[in-house]
Specification:
The structure is a single chain. With 291 residues, this protein is mainly alpha-helical. It has 3 domains: 60 residues, Orthogonal Bundle (Arc Repressor Mutant, subunit A), CATH 1.10.10; 92 residues, Helicase, Ruva Protein, domain 3 (Orthogonal Bundle); 124 residues, Ypt/Rab-GAP domain of gyp1p, domain 3 (Cyclin A, domain 1). Helix content is 68%, strand content 0%. The protein contains 16 helices and no strands. The longest helix is centred in the first third of the chain and has 21 residues. The radius of gyration is 20 Å and the shape is globular.
Length: 291
């Protein structure tokens, strides 16, 4: 059964109350957002120190992704312009019969983005990077009510992830994954090391695509992306380590590399498993990095 989003939100609110988040975190956030000129560095630091309350997330992401300027006074004007641009692009594609009411939002967003950048050709065909764009779009649509805001966040978030080229940190991440698994579960480390799993992890799915295909939109992936927007890219290998630790039982029974990889590539994981991995992975990151 699907859990009611409102009851989920209420649970989080009561949880934050319990751990004193509203006392410290929300006060700090309100103070940052009160300034006439919002300092992005302070917002990045906030993303690392505190969980972002759901009702603030789209605003924080819009500022960090430069969809909105740091000057508060300009926000309303810029948002009106952004919405107008969205409406114009949407209408143009409807007129060209490139989208209709049955076209899923992430597909609409991609075609709008390609139109905006002058890359929508007469014969539209999917390219490899489109799948990543759709996965980001699906997650954003789950988090944001307004299609116009969801469009700008999807485009900007996809660009942010692509430009940061997290896959280039693969070697440094490898050291974090292996040392973390070894420290947390030596038997699992030995097994995975013997089968050469650590060098063959699905790096594209995990690092290059920031787990967009690994965790379903409602599994809490926004918590990882909050940290990436806070410039804490080292969260990525800790989530990788936590995936391995979570599937310990399955992995210990694998006889070879291929069977290990089939366990790890069987994505997206369930909502409950995703939530567990992300929560524990963030705890692991905090513990190891002494956050």
């Amino acid at each position: 059964t699907m859990e009611d989003p409102q009851s989920k939100r209420n649970f989080r609110v009561s949880y934050y109350d319990k751990v004193g988040f509203r006392g410290i975190g929300e006060k700090a956030l309100v103070a940052i957002l009160k300034d006439d000129v919002i300092e992005r560095k302070k917002l990045e630091h906030f993303c690392i120190r505190f969980p972002i309350p759901n009702n603030y997330r789209d605003l924080i992401w819009e500022i960090l992704l430069h969809i909105l300027p740091s000057h508060q006074q300009s926000h309303k004007f810029v948002m009106v312009q952004r919405t107008q641009q969205y409406d114009d692009l949407h209408r143009a594609l409807e007129v060209m019969k490139k989208i209709d009411t049955d076209t899923e939002l992430p597909v609409q967003f991609l075609k709008m983005h390609l139109t905006e950048t002058g890359k929508l050709h007469l014969k539209f065909k999917d390219e490899k990077w489109h799948e990543f764009f759709y996965a980001v779009g699906n997650a954003v649509c789950e988090l944001v009510d307004s299609p116009a805001i969801a469009y700008w966040i999807t485009v900007s978030l996809h660009s942010f992830f692509t430009e940061n080229k997290y896959i280039e940190h693969k070697e440094a991440f490898h050291i974090i994954v292996t040392s973390t698994v070894k420290k947390e579960n030596n038997a699992l480390f030995t097994k995975l090391n013997d089968l050469d799993v650590f060098h063959n992890l699905p790096f594209d799915l995990w690092y290059a695509e920031c787990y967009a295909h690994v965790f379903p939109p409602s599994g809490g992936i926004e918590r990882i992306w909050d940290l990436l927007l806070g410039r804490a890219c080292r969260i990525l290998p800790y989530i990788a380590a936590q995936i391995l630790l979570t599937f310990e039982r399955h992995l210990l029974h694998c006889a070879n590399l291929q069977s290990c990889l089939s366990v790890l590539k069987n994505v997206p994981f369930s909502e409950a498993t995703s939530s567990l991995i992300i929560g524990k992975g963030i705890e692991l990151w905090k513990k190891m990095e002494k956050i």
